[in-house]
Design goal:
alpha+beta; Aminopeptidase; Alpha-Beta Plaits; 5-stranded mixed beta sheet; 11 helices; elongated
Length: about 350
């Protein structure tokens, strides 16, 4: 096991240059950006030290990992890994304007001529902030990610009857927002019912006609479930559909529950996970095994190549928020582990 070290100040400076760019509407200084800059710093360090690796090390910045504007998430890595075909990826519409991802590529000059996917990848490593509170609470700078939770995403449409808010008596109303609010509460109950590992979230709601003096006739909202066990996700799916149907029937509404996106729990490669753990131990960094609560491009890359991830703490466990933050020393530790795990896996390296 080697014990090379990166230039932490250079890594931090690179990240601050990107701090104004966010992956979600509320901005994220380190979500995604850390992984790309850590990979860049690994290559810079090897070049600075004159190391030559037996196989090439490539850096990748995936398109549309969050899916905030063009749903679903992880479209770039999904097309590369064959989860989505290219036409599907390029045809993803903007969530508000309807412009496609492919059209935006053309507009900004990112529509390249190279084919997507079909390239052999010997191993894939990804560094990331945890986006949760576990590592910080444990006082561990390194999380050895053993796998990722499964996820189910849904789109729910509740239909009632628009009517005037004044003349329409309460017993005669078919208020779609009342029904949707009860369904949203049910989503929350389902998450708590499968604690401690389940997560259940409604993050997007549209109300129509969204007028002060009109009874809502239609509500659209999203649901996402996460859990490391597929059987539990299946039970959460059943509970959601049952709750929505019962709530709608009780007050004369119609409801459509459509599963929009699904991927099962994903274990990472044991040899690569061990390389991350060994690198942390060799450098004296306290660490612990951890399951990723978020989706990452590594989930799709695990379908085509041995894959592992490295987590570092984020302050307060907060992510997808303007106050997202991470300590320079933790980011440096994560990058050092990445560097040495890569070198340990590709041990046939030489120094000219």
């Amino acid at each position: 096991m080697r014990n090379l070290r990166i230039d932490g100040e250079r890594l931090w400076a690179s990240l601050m240059d990107l701090a104004r760019i966010g992956a979600t509407p509320k901005g994220c200084k380190f979500d995604g950006a850390f992984g790309v800059m850590a990979a860049l710093e690994v290559v810079r360090t090897l070049n600075d030290l004159g190391w030559e690796t037996a196989a090439p090390i490539e850096i990748v910045a995936w398109t549309n990992e969050e899916g905030s504007r063009f749903s679903p998430a992880m479209v770039g890595s999904g097309v590369f890994a064959g989860v989505f075909d290219l036409a599907y990826g390029l045809g993803r519409p903007d969530n508000t304007s309807g412009v496609t991802l492919g059209a935006e590529f053309e507009r900004i000059g990112f529509a390249g001529p190279e084919p997507v996917g079909g390239r052999a990848v010997a191993a894939y490593f990804e560094a990331h902030i945890e986006q949760g509170p576990i590592l910080e609470a444990a006082g561990k700078p390194i999380g050895v990610v053993t796998g990722a939770q499964g996820q189910r995403w849904y789109e729910v449409t509740v239909t009632g009857q628009e009517a005037h808010a004044g003349p329409t008596p309460m017993p005669r109303r078919r208020d779609a927002l009342v029904g949707a609010s009860r369904m949203i509460e049910a989503v929350n109950r389902i998450g708590h019912a499968h604690a401690p590992n389940a997560c259940a979230t409604v993050g997007f709601v549209q109300v129509s006609p969204n007028s002060r003096n009109s009874i809502p006739g239609r509500v659209f909202f999203t649901v996402e479930f996460r859990h490391p066990e597929d059987a539990v996700l299946t039970e959460m799916d059943r509970a959601l559909r049952q709750a929505c149907a019962e709530i709608a029937a009780a007050i004369g509404l119609e409801v459509e529950v459509s599963e929009f996106w699904y991927f099962p729990p994903t274990p990472f490669d044991p040899d690569l996970v061990a390389a991350v753990r060994d690198a942390a131990e060799a450098q004296g960094y306290p660490h612990q095994d951890i399951i990723s609560g978020a989706g990452h491009d590594a989930v799709y890359m695990a379908r085509v190549a041995p894959t592992a991830m490295i987590f570092v703490p984020c302050v307060g466990g907060i992510s997808h928020n303007e106050i997202e933050d991470a300590k320079p020393e933790d980011l440096t530790a994560g990058c050092n582990v990445l560097l040495n795990a890569v070198l340990d896996l590709g041990s046939a390296c030489r120094r000219p």
